[in-house]
Design brief:
Blueprint lengths: L1 H19 L16 E4 L14 H9 L3 E8 L5 E3 L6 H4 L10 H4 L14 H8 L5 E5 L7 H11 L5 E5 L2 H10 L5 E5 L11 H8 L4 H4 L3 E5 L6 H10 L3 E7 L1 H7 L5 E6 L1
Parallel strand pairs: 1-2, 1-9, 2-4, 4-5, 5-6, 6-7, 7-8, 8-9
Antiparallel strand pairs: 2-3
Length: 269
Amino acid sequence: MYLIALLAVICIVLLFAFLTAPRLSDRRRMRPFLGIKWAHRGLHDIRKGIPENSFPAFHAAAEKGYGIELDVHMTRDRQLVVFHDDTFERVCGCRGVVEQTDYVELSRYNLCGTKEKIPLLRDVLRRVNGKVPLLIEVKLPNSDTEICRRLDQVLKGYKGAYMIQSFNSLVLRWLKKHSRETLRGQLSANLTRSDDTPHYLLRFCVKYLLSNCMCRPDFISYKWADRKNLGFRLNRMLFRTPSAVWTLQGDKDVREAKRKFDMFIFERT
């Protein structure tokens, strides 16, 4: 019985290792990004009239030498826009879903009551122009990976340093198949706590990094409040996977995070 139990434990460990393993080759390519502090949606501060994911927020981050974390959606007419939420209510005070709206319409919306508009990704790339690295989160609310192809086309002409991350493992799977040189990261958190999507099994797999087997990420980007997740901790222990943490609130969180993480996505300093 003891031998059977031991073999069962070994099999479980091996299966977990197979399912959660990151890409183990080319790890040296991650080194330039380790230690970077990423300004979450740019260095925004609405008290100063600087909304999230706006040109002023990105300029402020670049001025201080911070990496820029930003979010990308694809509009109904296949334009790549820099915007976080799936809908416009919180940031723009308008109804509608990004993927169901043409760019000409959403380009009229103001960000957080300011005069700033929702920017196109290509315009953000032109303004940043490689001054600081970019951490691009791809928003994919469905299984249509056309956004990946279009993003890859836009980034091929960009000379600056960047990485791509997403909660949706299909994004990383697409990169694994079609753009292997792109550094890709699995975003995760305690996703089973929320019922935002009906796909409980998928949320469970991403929460414990079991979907790594389909996309083999270069790094993990995990939520600070959920950092004690067993799957994440075992992944770090087994593979020393480079890991970012989000979203840190102030210098105290950053100092504590430096003990166990490699990259730091923050909002307030």
